Protein backbone atom coordinates (compact mmCIF):
# COMPACT_ATOMS: atom_id res chain seq x y z
CA UNK A 1 0.00 0.00 0.00
CA UNK A 2 1.32 3.46 -0.94
CA UNK A 3 2.39 5.89 1.77
CA UNK A 4 3.53 9.46 2.12
CA UNK A 5 6.17 10.11 4.77
CA UNK A 6 6.46 13.56 6.39
CA UNK A 7 10.10 13.60 7.44
CA UNK A 8 11.74 16.37 9.48
CA UNK A 9 15.37 17.17 8.69
CA UNK A 10 17.91 18.87 10.99
CA UNK A 11 17.69 22.64 11.37
CA UNK A 12 21.39 22.83 12.15
CA UNK A 13 22.78 19.77 13.89
CA UNK A 14 22.94 16.69 11.64
CA UNK A 15 22.80 14.47 14.72
CA UNK A 16 19.13 15.44 15.16
CA UNK A 17 17.89 13.25 12.31
CA UNK A 18 16.52 9.91 13.52
CA UNK A 19 17.50 6.42 12.38
CA UNK A 20 13.88 5.81 11.42
CA UNK A 21 13.92 8.88 9.16
CA UNK A 22 17.15 7.76 7.49
CA UNK A 23 15.75 4.29 6.82
CA UNK A 24 12.60 5.76 5.27
CA UNK A 25 14.62 8.10 3.06
CA UNK A 26 16.68 5.14 1.84
CA UNK A 27 13.74 2.84 1.18
CA UNK A 28 11.13 5.18 -0.37
CA UNK A 29 10.75 5.53 -4.13
CA UNK A 30 11.26 9.29 -4.27
CA UNK A 31 11.90 12.28 -2.06
CA UNK A 32 10.11 15.57 -2.61
CA UNK A 33 12.52 18.33 -1.61
CA UNK A 34 12.09 22.09 -1.20
CA UNK A 35 15.60 22.69 -2.59
CA UNK A 36 17.09 19.61 -4.25
CA UNK A 37 20.62 21.01 -4.04
CA UNK A 38 20.35 21.52 -0.30
CA UNK A 39 18.78 18.11 0.31
CA UNK A 40 21.32 16.41 -1.94
CA UNK A 41 24.07 17.49 0.47
CA UNK A 42 22.17 15.84 3.32
CA UNK A 43 21.63 12.64 1.34
CA UNK A 44 25.28 12.52 0.30
CA UNK A 45 26.37 12.82 3.91
CA UNK A 46 24.30 9.76 4.84
CA UNK A 47 25.00 7.93 1.56
CA UNK A 48 21.36 7.90 0.43
CA UNK A 49 20.76 7.41 -3.31
CA UNK A 50 16.98 7.93 -3.53
CA UNK A 51 15.63 10.01 -6.43
CA UNK A 52 14.98 13.67 -5.63
CA UNK A 53 12.07 15.68 -7.06
CA UNK A 54 11.69 19.45 -6.69
CA UNK A 55 8.71 20.43 -4.54
CA UNK A 56 8.45 24.05 -3.36
CA UNK A 57 5.90 26.79 -2.79
CA UNK A 58 5.93 27.87 -6.46
CA UNK A 59 5.04 24.44 -7.88
CA UNK A 60 3.39 22.85 -4.84
CA UNK A 61 -0.18 22.68 -6.13
CA UNK A 62 0.65 21.36 -9.62
CA UNK A 63 3.35 18.96 -8.42
CA UNK A 64 1.05 17.61 -5.69
CA UNK A 65 -1.55 16.58 -8.26
CA UNK A 66 1.12 14.93 -10.42
CA UNK A 67 2.67 13.00 -7.54
CA UNK A 68 -0.69 11.82 -6.20
CA UNK A 69 -1.59 10.45 -9.64
CA UNK A 70 1.77 8.67 -9.80
CA UNK A 71 1.32 7.21 -6.32
CA UNK A 72 -2.13 5.88 -7.19
CA UNK A 73 -1.01 4.44 -10.52
CA UNK A 74 2.26 2.86 -9.41
CA UNK A 75 1.82 2.35 -5.64
CA UNK A 76 4.89 4.35 -4.72
CA UNK A 77 6.09 5.42 -1.28
CA UNK A 78 7.04 9.10 -1.23
CA UNK A 79 8.90 11.16 1.38
CA UNK A 80 8.55 14.91 1.80
CA UNK A 81 11.35 17.02 3.26
CA UNK A 82 12.09 20.73 3.43
CA UNK A 83 15.39 22.55 3.72
CA UNK A 84 15.24 22.27 7.51
CA UNK A 85 12.68 21.27 10.10
CA UNK A 86 9.25 19.73 9.68
CA UNK A 87 7.31 19.95 6.38
CA UNK A 88 3.96 21.79 6.46
CA UNK A 89 5.08 24.06 9.34
CA UNK A 90 5.65 27.33 7.44
CA UNK A 91 7.03 25.11 4.67
CA UNK A 92 5.58 23.20 1.68
CA UNK A 93 3.64 19.99 2.23
CA UNK A 94 0.05 20.94 3.02
CA UNK A 95 -1.26 20.58 -0.55
CA UNK A 96 -0.07 17.01 -1.08
CA UNK A 97 -1.13 15.88 2.40
CA UNK A 98 -4.62 17.30 1.81
CA UNK A 99 -4.90 15.50 -1.53
CA UNK A 100 -3.57 12.29 0.00
CA UNK A 101 -6.22 12.39 2.73
CA UNK A 102 -8.92 12.98 0.14
CA UNK A 103 -7.68 10.00 -1.91
CA UNK A 104 -7.32 7.73 1.16
CA UNK A 105 -3.54 7.50 0.80
CA UNK A 106 -1.82 6.78 4.11
CA UNK A 107 0.21 9.66 5.55
CA UNK A 108 2.81 8.95 8.23
CA UNK A 109 4.52 11.61 10.34
CA UNK A 110 8.01 11.26 11.81
CA UNK A 111 9.41 12.77 14.98
CA UNK A 112 12.22 15.24 14.49
CA UNK A 113 13.45 18.80 14.46
CA UNK A 114 10.98 21.70 14.47
CA UNK A 115 12.17 25.22 15.25
CA UNK A 116 8.82 26.14 16.83
CA UNK A 117 8.80 23.43 19.49
CA UNK A 118 12.51 23.82 20.22
CA UNK A 119 12.13 27.58 20.70
CA UNK A 120 9.08 27.17 22.94
CA UNK A 121 10.83 24.59 25.10
CA UNK A 122 13.82 26.83 25.84
CA UNK A 123 12.04 30.20 25.94
CA UNK A 124 11.05 30.38 29.59
CA UNK A 125 7.63 31.57 28.41
CA UNK A 126 4.33 29.87 29.30
CA UNK A 127 3.50 27.17 26.74
CA UNK A 128 0.14 25.90 28.06
CA UNK A 129 -1.40 27.54 24.99
CA UNK A 130 0.35 29.22 22.10
CA UNK A 131 -0.47 30.66 18.68
CA UNK A 132 1.87 30.11 15.73
CA UNK A 133 2.03 32.84 13.08
CA UNK A 134 5.05 31.91 10.96
CA UNK A 135 6.38 34.83 8.89
CA UNK A 136 4.44 38.09 9.25
CA UNK A 137 3.94 40.59 6.37
CA UNK A 138 6.93 42.69 5.35
CA UNK A 139 5.26 46.05 4.77
CA UNK A 140 4.88 48.20 7.88
CA UNK A 141 1.12 48.73 7.56
CA UNK A 142 0.31 45.03 7.11
CA UNK A 143 2.82 44.11 9.83
CA UNK A 144 1.11 46.50 12.24
CA UNK A 145 -2.28 45.01 11.42
CA UNK A 146 -0.94 41.48 12.00
CA UNK A 147 0.51 42.48 15.37
CA UNK A 148 -2.79 44.06 16.39
CA UNK A 149 -4.49 40.72 15.71
CA UNK A 150 -1.86 38.97 17.83
CA UNK A 151 -2.43 41.54 20.56
CA UNK A 152 -6.19 40.90 20.59
CA UNK A 153 -5.82 37.10 20.68
CA UNK A 154 -6.71 35.67 24.08
CA UNK A 155 -3.99 33.06 23.49
CA UNK A 156 -1.17 35.24 24.67
CA UNK A 157 1.95 33.21 23.91
CA UNK A 158 2.92 33.65 20.26
CA UNK A 159 5.58 32.31 17.89
CA UNK A 160 6.89 34.23 14.88
CA UNK A 161 9.56 33.37 12.32
CA UNK A 162 11.75 36.17 10.98
CA UNK A 163 14.72 36.68 8.67
CA UNK A 164 17.95 38.28 9.95
CA UNK A 165 17.49 41.36 7.74
CA UNK A 166 14.12 42.17 9.32
CA UNK A 167 14.50 41.05 12.94
CA UNK A 168 15.17 44.56 14.30
CA UNK A 169 12.21 45.95 12.38
CA UNK A 170 9.98 43.22 13.84
CA UNK A 171 11.18 43.91 17.38
CA UNK A 172 10.55 47.65 16.91
CA UNK A 173 7.04 46.90 15.66
CA UNK A 174 6.31 44.63 18.63
CA UNK A 175 7.61 47.36 20.93
CA UNK A 176 5.16 49.81 19.32
CA UNK A 177 2.09 47.58 19.49
CA UNK A 178 2.86 45.44 22.59
CA UNK A 179 5.37 47.43 24.67
CA UNK A 180 4.87 45.25 27.75
CA UNK A 181 5.46 41.94 25.98
CA UNK A 182 8.18 39.54 27.13
CA UNK A 183 10.27 38.04 24.33
CA UNK A 184 12.76 35.24 23.85
CA UNK A 185 14.45 35.75 20.49
CA UNK A 186 16.12 32.51 19.44
CA UNK A 187 18.91 32.62 16.87
CA UNK A 188 20.55 29.69 15.04
CA UNK A 189 18.81 27.00 17.10
CA UNK A 190 20.84 23.76 17.53
CA UNK A 191 23.79 25.31 15.68
CA UNK A 192 27.29 26.26 16.83
CA UNK A 193 26.44 29.96 17.27
CA UNK A 194 23.06 29.45 18.94
CA UNK A 195 22.03 32.55 20.88
CA UNK A 196 19.08 33.82 22.93
CA UNK A 197 17.90 37.32 23.86
CA UNK A 198 15.34 37.29 26.67
CA UNK A 199 13.46 40.03 28.51
CA UNK A 200 11.02 42.85 27.90
CA UNK A 201 10.78 44.11 24.34
CA UNK A 202 12.90 47.16 25.12
CA UNK A 203 15.54 45.01 26.85
CA UNK A 204 15.70 42.62 23.90
CA UNK A 205 15.94 45.50 21.42
CA UNK A 206 18.91 46.93 23.30
CA UNK A 207 20.59 43.53 23.38
CA UNK A 208 20.12 42.99 19.66
CA UNK A 209 21.17 46.49 18.63
CA UNK A 210 24.52 45.84 20.32
CA UNK A 211 25.02 42.59 18.40
CA UNK A 212 27.30 43.17 15.41
CA UNK A 213 26.19 39.82 13.94
CA UNK A 214 22.47 40.55 14.22
CA UNK A 215 21.92 40.15 10.47
CA UNK A 216 23.30 36.62 10.38
CA UNK A 217 21.32 33.46 11.09
CA UNK A 218 17.67 32.44 11.33
CA UNK A 219 15.30 33.65 14.03
CA UNK A 220 12.33 32.33 15.99
CA UNK A 221 10.60 34.84 18.27
CA UNK A 222 8.60 33.51 21.21
CA UNK A 223 6.61 36.18 23.03
CA UNK A 224 4.09 36.64 25.79
CA UNK A 225 1.57 39.43 25.28
CA UNK A 226 1.11 41.42 28.48
CA UNK A 227 -0.87 44.03 26.50
CA UNK A 228 -3.83 41.74 25.82
CA UNK A 229 -7.03 43.77 25.68
CA UNK A 230 -9.78 41.83 27.48
CA UNK A 231 -13.17 42.12 25.81
CA UNK A 232 -16.66 41.23 26.94
CA UNK A 233 -19.14 39.21 24.86
CA UNK A 234 -20.18 42.29 22.87
CA UNK A 235 -16.61 43.15 21.98
CA UNK A 236 -16.11 46.10 24.34
CA UNK A 237 -12.75 46.51 26.05
CA UNK A 238 -12.77 45.73 29.75
CA UNK A 239 -10.53 48.09 31.66
CA UNK A 240 -8.05 47.02 34.33
CA UNK A 241 -10.09 49.03 36.79
CA UNK A 242 -13.16 46.93 35.98
CA UNK A 243 -11.21 43.70 36.36
CA UNK A 244 -9.92 44.80 39.76
CA UNK A 245 -13.42 45.79 40.87
CA UNK A 246 -14.77 42.43 39.66
CA UNK A 247 -12.25 40.54 41.80
CA UNK A 248 -13.06 42.68 44.83
CA UNK A 249 -16.83 42.34 44.42
CA UNK A 250 -17.23 38.76 43.16
CA UNK A 251 -14.22 37.02 44.71
CA UNK A 252 -14.20 39.11 47.92
CA UNK A 253 -10.52 39.99 47.36
CA UNK A 254 -8.81 42.87 49.05
CA UNK A 255 -7.41 45.55 46.73
CA UNK A 256 -3.93 44.16 47.32
CA UNK A 257 -5.06 40.60 46.55
CA UNK A 258 -6.81 41.76 43.36
CA UNK A 259 -3.61 43.44 42.13
CA UNK A 260 -1.59 40.31 42.89
CA UNK A 261 -4.02 38.05 41.00
CA UNK A 262 -3.97 40.28 37.92
CA UNK A 263 -0.17 40.31 37.90
CA UNK A 264 0.06 36.54 38.55
CA UNK A 265 -2.40 35.88 35.72
CA UNK A 266 -0.20 38.09 33.49
CA UNK A 267 -3.16 40.31 32.63
CA UNK A 268 -1.02 43.37 33.29
CA UNK A 269 2.35 44.39 34.63
CA UNK A 270 2.70 45.14 38.33
CA UNK A 271 3.13 48.83 37.55
CA UNK A 272 0.00 49.05 35.37
CA UNK A 273 -2.09 47.07 37.85
CA UNK A 274 -1.00 49.36 40.67
CA UNK A 275 -1.84 52.49 38.67
CA UNK A 276 -5.31 51.10 37.88
CA UNK A 277 -5.83 50.22 41.55
CA UNK A 278 -5.34 53.88 42.49
CA UNK A 279 -8.36 54.76 40.33
CA UNK A 280 -10.39 52.04 42.04
CA UNK A 281 -9.31 53.23 45.48
CA UNK A 282 -10.19 56.82 44.55
CA UNK A 283 -13.63 55.68 43.40
CA UNK A 284 -14.28 53.81 46.65
CA UNK A 285 -13.30 56.90 48.63
CA UNK A 286 -15.33 59.32 46.47
CA UNK A 287 -18.57 60.98 47.53
CA UNK A 288 -20.37 59.18 44.67
CA UNK A 289 -19.60 55.76 46.14
CA UNK A 290 -20.41 56.84 49.66
Can you offer a commentary on this structure?
With about 290 residues, this protein is α/β, with parallel strands linked by helices. The chain contains 11 helices and 10 strands. It has helices at about 20-25, 35-45, 60-75, 95-100, 115-125, 140-150, 165-175, 200-210, 240-250, 255-265, 270-285, and strands at about 5, 30-35, 50-55, 80, 105-110, 130-135, 155-160, 180-185, 195-200, 220-225. The chain has a 5-stranded parallel sheet with strand order 3-2-4-1-5, sandwiched between helices. The chain has a 5-stranded mixed sheet with strand order 6-7-10-8-9. Strand 8 (about 180-185) and strand 9 (about 195-200) form a beta hairpin. Helix 7 packs antiparallel against helix 8 (about 200-210), helix 9 (about 240-250) crosses helix 10 (about 255-265) and helix 9 crosses helix 11 (about 270-285). The longest helix has 16 residues, at about 270-285. It is elongated. It starts with a strand and ends in a 5-residue tail after the last helix.
Short summary of the structure?
This protein has 290 residues and is an alpha/beta fold.
Rg on CA atoms, Å: 24 Å
Strand order of the largest sheet: 3-2-4-1-5
Question: N-to-C terminal Cα separation, in Å?
Answer: 78 Å
Q: Strand percentage, roughly?
A: 15-25%
Tell how many strands the DSSP assignment holds: 10
**How does the helix and strand content classify structurally?**
alpha/beta
Q: What overall geometry do the principal axes of the alpha carbons give? A: elongated
Tally of helical runs = 11
Order of helices and strands: EHEHEHEHEHEHEHEEHEHHH
Q: Helicity, in percent?
A: 40-55%
Detail the poorly predicted runs: 231-237
Return the average pLDDT rounded to an integer.
91
